[in-house]
Every structure is written in structure tokens, then in C-alpha cells.
Amino acid sequence: MDFKEFIEIDREKRSTEKFEGNFLDYLQILKNNPDIPKLGHQRLYEMILSKGVEDLKPDENPRIRKIYGNQVIRKYGFFKNDFYGIDKVIMKIASYLKSAAMKGEEARQVLYLVGPVGAGKSSIVESLKKALEECEEIYALKGCPMHEEPLHLIPKHLRSKFEDMLSIKIEGDLCPVCKYKLLHELDGKYEDFPVERVGFSIRSRKGIGVVPPVDPNNQDTS
Ligand SMILES: [Zn+2]
To answer: How many Å lie between the centroid of ligand 1 and the Cα of residue 137?
Structure first.
């Protein structure tokens, strides 16, 4: 293996994947693929589903009947290799994410994992965090401290028109930093606002926040 070649191939690949553009370019991309903007719950849920789902019926599966009685158990491929015996917990988490992704009441609730030490709370969160890092990069306003969705730039009076044109629901408002930049550096021309692609990163706290625990020995508040 030639290290230099290996590094250069990787750099080449990454630079072709890089996106440089402004809000107008982003709108064009959305026109071709209105599936791009997603809220967190939907992104997580799709990430879990992407690894496959299998329904285990008790009448076809004596083992499942023995453990869970007459309940159909949904096995998520995402958790298959690392978690055992907590199928019901995983089903609960997945159903929370599903309803939240469909903008149900859960979308406004916080998912809080409670259980004894060693039950797998942190491990579940760790596995989600790690998988997010491998997710596709998202589009965000360049320079925004919270990497916000570029659609926030669209002014209120045009939102319903843009929603019709793109078949996308637009939620959320511009953060103060971007608002300042828009007014003072771009003269209010939101179509020129630079857009970049950002990946999730645990280490640089991008898209994944970690609150330092009060007692780091026994709490992980990811
Ligand atoms: Zn912002």
C-alpha cells in the first residue's frame, strides 16, 4: 500500500464531494431532490431503518414466543450486533422516532433514557452518535454557529410559495448571527448567502451535543 497515493485518492474524492455555492444553488439542488432537508428525528429514524427491519412473529418463532409471549417483535438491523435482550426498549425508541419524524406530539418531546446502571442507555446513544458521523453531510448556512438549514433565509411572506414550488415544509427562523450577516454583509440579498456542506462530528461538536455530566464517573448526558 502506497500511503501517499492512498491519501491523495482520498483527498481527490473528498474535494469532488465538496459543495461550494450560495442559496440559489441550494434551491436548484432542492428542486431536483426535495428529500434533502430533514429534521433530526427523521434523519435518525431513516438511519436506523436503512439497516433493515425484520418482524418476528411468535407463531413462527418459538424462541420469541418463549421470551416475549404472543407479541410480534420487530428486530432492527441497526442494533442487531451490539444489543441483546432489549428488543422491546429498542422498539419503543424506534416508535418514538417514527412518530416524531411524522411531526407527531413526540416531535416536541425530549427522549429521556432511564434505567439501572449497565442497562445499555449510554451504549444506545453512543451507537446513534457514531452512526450519525457516517451519515451523509447536510447543507448548512456557511459560518452559522449552529449550522442551520438554509431554508430559514426565505422571508415569511414567500414561504408558502416556496413550499408549493419545492413541495417542502419550511420551519424555523434565522439565527441572530446569520441575520446580522445577511443585513450587514449581504445587503439583505439572501439568495447570495453562502451555503456549505457539514458532516456530523462528535469531536468537534457538530450536530451532536454533549453536556458534561455533573459526576463524570456515573453519568453520561450525551
Ligand atoms: Zn445561523
So the answer is: 17
